[in-house]
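Before relying on records like the one below, remember that each one covers exactly one chain. Contacts with other chains, cofactors or solvent are not represented anywhere in the record.
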Amino acid sequence: MKPVKVGLLGLGTVGGGTVNVLQRNAEEIARRAGRGIIISHAAARDINKPRICRTDGIELTENPNGVVTDPDVSIVVELIGGDTLARELVLKAIANGKHVVTANKALIAKHGNEIFSAAQKKGVMVAFEAAVAGGIPIIKAIREGLAGNKIEWLAGIINGTGNFILTEMRDKQRDFDSVLSEAQRLGYAEADPTFDVEGIDAAHKLTILASIAFGIPLQFEKAYTEGISKITREDVDYATELGYSIKHLGVTRRTEKGIELRVHPTLIPKRRLIANVDGVMNAVLVKGDAVGSTLYYGAGAGAEATASAVVADIVDVARVLTTDPGNRVPHLAFQPESLSNVPILPIDEIETSYYLRITASDETGVLANITSILADNDISIDSMLQKEHGKDNTATIIIVTHTTIEKYMNNALEKIHALDVVDGDVVRIRLEHLDAD
């Protein structure tokens, strides 16, 4: 059988890693796919630039349109990033009857509904394992391995940059700005780190995970996103004292009212395995009704870690090139006509616990006033610490609450802020126990 010819769009870090993995493991991959797989074409901005891979035998071009329209190419692998040119090229590849593999989370999160619809009409596949959590096969695990389960919730550390920053802040008692500078120097963070530290990158990935977990259309615009740039070393230390780790977590949960879809700093009990995922590593915890809780851990980025997922998708496509399109695994796990219109909940309606840090005058009755306001809003207290400051006659009050609805907490914080004895803003960080029950 003739080998499958693949066209790469992008020969950067992941593109080069993909070439290396395919070339190095060619024999093993052919045994798994049932036929050889070769990179025959590749497009790059500068074809004369030094590469991390060998390009002999690959037809190089600076015109990506030539790759997506070439009749010899069966699979187009999009690795250029962004969601403008990438969207145009992917749709053109589909229109030309090409199967597509992509590592582009923004493209799938924002335009996946359109892309999957076009692919279904043309009878081609769009595979996107590498778009979430790098080398961790989380898409396949949820879509296929857990197909017998009703997924109840999932929570993930799905951005390595943010996890590195929070780990360094905890372990080395450093502040956010200092660690961010180091992350940029080490290449973990971009010169403009907004997508990573403000949660946009994680929200793209969480949007994809929620869709395949719950069988809903991709709805990135409805994801609540909050970054870690306001997390202080003080809060990291208090969380540790209380028995928690702060992680930048993506959480999506099925409730009777709708689907929670949110990315934000989160306290997690230190005894949970996911709370001990450190540095640039990723992890996703999935709770199914039959299997219980399962944890998926590994490298969330890197040339060959991400290439591992890209090549796995290429192998999957090669295996089903001649398969009846109606019998393939659906893009979003559920048959397209069976996707649900369950609403995404606004952040005011989510239910979670909270960590509160309040600086207030060290006077009689202050704590009673604060706890009374919480009680009036149906918020009960799980634990509390008080740290006195001798110099300015203020005290820091740390409160951990039981589960409540966010709008109740918003009402309570508005009243607490209005107290004359409260100094500055109340720090509020959500808390998830992530119990198996």
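The first strand starts at residue 4 and ends at 9.
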